[in-house]
Amino acid sequence: MEFSKEQIIDLISAYHQNTISDEGMQNLKDWLKINPKNSSEFANYLALLKESDAISELNKIDKEQAWNNINQSLNKVSKPDKVRRLHQWLPYAAAVVVVAFVSYFMIYQVHQEYDFSKNYNFAEIAKAGSVKAILTLDNGEVMSLDNKLASVITEKDGTLIHKNKEDGIIYNRKAEVKTKLIYNKINVPRGGEYSLTLADGTRVRLNSESSLKYPVQFIGSIRKVELTGEAFFEVAHNADKPFIVKALDNEVKVLGTKFNVSSYSDEEYVATTLVEGSVQVEVLGNTQLLKPGFQAVVKKGDNKFAVNKVNTDLYTSWTTGVFRFKDQSLEEICHQLSRWYDVDFFFTENQYRNLRFSGAAKREKPIDFSLGMIEKMAKVKFAIKDNRIIVGKPNQ
Predict the structure, then answer these.
(1) What is the pTM of this model?
(2) Using one digit for the tens of pLDDT, what is the confidence trace for 9-61?
(3) What phi and psi values does residue 120 have, to the nearest 5 degrees?
(4) CA triplet 107, 358, 289: central angle to 5 degrees?
(5) Which CATH number fits domain 130-315: 2.60.120.1440, 3.30.1330.10, 3.40.50.720, 2.50.20.10?
(6) DSSP secondary structure string, 116-184?
(7) Fold of the domain spanning 122-126+316-392
């Protein structure tokens, strides 16, 4: 019997909470016998669940105790210089009281404003993403690529851009040699994804909230494109024309390979993950050669690489319609969900941002599935307020 990641997470969560059925326990045992590596995965999930149980309660400030502490300090002032010291203490005493009351008020408001006890339909405000993008031609004309109707677009140099029902857009090669580069730009909004095939045969898959600027025909000794956001490249081999992806300060140079580049403007790092072939990553004068199965991460504005061997599926699974998380913070997970489902998250407490999870979910599923999976693994709840998803937990 085959088990999906979702099923395993449900089984381990039920086991952890002592709510697993006899059938569930048998399925869990069967899964553990399938592969020796499953025992390690079981231990990792269980450790995450136990760590989540250790989250401390929300800090509660007792305003009366805060005032009593201040009173005691004031009463310890000796009589000879009582007036002078009282004047010294009053600003600080007032500040402590204000902080105590404001903190208490804010915590009280958090509990009052967000009702985590309701059964929310999160899909109402967070629709799963779809195939959609905006294409900007060289003359500035803007075209929507949302509909599934096939069509042909002609650029001013005669290049034909075929828009297919399923394959996105495809640029046809031109036999005649051009002397001037003509650029197109494709923008994929939040809640979208899109694929295109460039004139050299290179296939590019763009993730949500990403854009790519590229020539409609490659001229000269290099093939260069500019990326913002995330994309997976399958570069057509051409030993005479290296393919270069410029992502902020990074330049990824290849001849023919498969790799993923993540360079979102609102994230601190740029990551290049190599699946096949070899790539050279250059940033601010420093270069790094990658082998398959390795990832180079560099902080924006810096040129020092962190190179590690990784499971490339974790960083490319989005191209196959799957979210995969391994020991990622809840803030990072929510950030990815926000792009795909076009919804914003708000954390009532910073401590929830740092909860770490492992799991998997199909992108086509409603967001309720992912949120429900997270709730099963930790003492955290989700609510809706003003079209935002609130992360917290019920008042106890």
Answers:
(1) 0.72
(2) 778 877 877 778 888 888 888 888 888 777 777 776 666 555 444 432 223 33
(3) -85, 150
(4) 115
(5) 2.60.120.1440
(6) TTS---GGGT-PPPEE--EEE-TTS-EEE--S---EEEE-TTS-EEEE-SSS-EEEPP-SSPPSS--EE
(7) Phage tail protein beta-alpha-beta fold (3.55.50)
- How would residue 167 be classed by pLDDT, with cut points 50, 70 and 90? low
CB 37 within 8 A of CB 391: no
User: Mutual orientation of helices 37-53 and 367-377 as an angle, nearest 10°?
Assistant: 80
Distance separating alpha carbons of residues 82 and 76, to the nearest angstrom: 9
The distance of Cα 314 from the centroid of its chain, to the nearest Å, equals 12
Considering only CA atoms, which of 324, 346, 377, 340 is closest in space to residue 52?
377
Q: Is the pLDDT of residue 172 over 90?
A: no
Query: pLDDT (tens digit, 9 = 90+) per residue, 63-97?
Result: 344 434 444 444 444 444 444 443 444 443 344 33
Please identify which residue in the block is written with the tokens 């489902």: 341
Q: Which residues pair with 307 in a beta bridge?
A: 296
